[in-house]
Amino acid sequence: DHNISLESMGVTVNAVAGALKAFFADLPDPLIPYSLHQELLETSKIVDKTERLHELKEIVKKFHPVNYDVFKYVITHLNRVSQQYKTNFMTADNLSICFWPTLMRPDFENREFLSTTKIHQSVIETFIHQCQFFF
């Protein structure tokens, strides 16, 4: 309901972001399927930016339709938030740092995974920056 004003109800932005992150954490599977994490890592290594973007777009097309729709909505929203960075200090980089673990739900116990956290974060940053291209 776009007529609801969370601000007038005294709900803070942090509370809304926390609720959203909790929702994704409670899902049985992450929004970005585990089966695509390795492809995202490999694609992020492509040096040519145009080719990398096209490959990422192909990976997004592999999402389950519901995951795709939710991912599109979330990334588009994060892009809008990042456009207000002068007011909210939330650049695409900052947003990707906050949201990549929520969207991908990594295994932080896995030492191999820890070495790729910056890559995963940069992939989400790319989705935020380039959301018009992807969707």
Write a structural description.
The model has no long low-confidence stretch (mean pLDDT 90). The longest helix is centred in the middle third of the chain and has 18 residues, at 65-82. The chain has helices at residues 13-26, 37-44, 49-60, 65-82, 85-88, 92-104, 111-114, 117-129, 131-134. It has a single domain, classed as Phosphatidylinositol 3-kinase, Chain A (Orthogonal Bundle). It has 135 residues and is mostly helical. The chain contains nine helices and no strands. It starts with 12 loop residues before the first helix and ends with a helix.
Keywords:
9 helices, 135 residues, globular, mainly alpha
Q: Number of helical segments? A: 9
Distance between the termini: 23 Å
CATH architecture: Orthogonal Bundle
Rg measurement, Å:
15 Å
Which homologous superfamily in CATH is the superfamily? Rho GTPase activation protein
- What fold name stands as the CATH topology? Phosphatidylinositol 3-kinase, Chain A
* The top level CATH class name: Mainly Alpha
Low-confidence segments, given as residue ranges, are: none
Shape: globular
Organism: Zapornia atra
InterPro entries: Rho-GAP_domain, Rho_GTPase_activation_prot, RhoGAP_dom
Pfam families: RhoGAP (PF00620)
Protein name: RHG05 protein
